[in-house]
Specification:
The chain is mainly α. Helices cover 55% and strands 0% of the residues. The protein contains seven helices and no strands. Helix 2 (33-50) packs antiparallel against helix 3 (61-75) and helix 3 runs antiparallel to helix 4 (83-92). The protein is elongated.
């Protein structure tokens, strides 16, 4: 066996070893594109279902049950110590503030617009945390906390003042929007007291 053949064999063995190591590393908790895609897709399906919570639950019962079944499938095989599994458990908890809890509330009565908006905001934050965990999989939840996405923290409150369309007064109870910088009339400076 010549020198070239030995170098070739060493290179092939090294390449094979690197490939096997990469495959084994992917099985041990690295990024899971399917888990990530499921989390993103289920977030959008959930937001779409929540848009219907002002109607009676019975009209959307099949869609709600289908969504909860998809949650169970997505969470399947995660164990209970993994941060992703814990986030799925929180989303699926019928006594909690997330999706399953909201569906339980909806079964009793349709949600009012303010309730629906608050639930959507909270549930979107739960899914944002799940998506972050899926994206950071293998790196841990610390990356999500550093990014400001937390399962425990509620999202920032929605702004209370909304700009009214041009020519219309702002909604009752809300402050009028301030004009953008530069659109203010120029005023003379106050004389300085000596």
């Amino acid at each position: 066996m010549g020198l070239v053949s030995r170098i070739k064999n060493i290179f092939l063995i090294g390449a094979l070893g690197a490939t096997l190591a990469a495959c084994a590393g992917g099985m041990g908790g690295g990024f899971d594109p399917v888990g990530y895609q499921n989390a993103v897709q289920l977030k959008y399906e959930t937001m779409s279902l929540l848009d219907n919570t002002s109607a009676p639950y019975r009209a959307h019962q099949a869609a709600a049950n289908s969504l909860l079944a998809k949650y169970a499938t997505a969470a399947e095989g995660r164990g209970s110590s993994d941060a992703i599994a814990q986030q799925w458990a929180a989303i699926r908890d019928p006594r909690g503030p997330s999706t399953a809890g909201t569906i339980e509330q909806w079964k009793k009565a349709p949600l009012r617009p303010g309730q629906r908006a608050e639930k959507k905001r909270l549930i979107a934050a739960h899914f944002d945390h799940l998506v972050c965990l899926e994206k950071a999989r293998g790196g841990g939840a610390a990356e999500c906390a550093e990014a400001g996405v937390s399962a425990d923290a509620t999202p920032a409150p929605a702004p209370t003042a909304a700009a009214a369309p041009a020519g219309r007064p702002p909604a009752r109870g809300r402050a009028a929007p301030k004009p953008p910088a530069g659109d203010e009339p120029e005023m003379e400076a106050e004389p300085q007291k000596e």
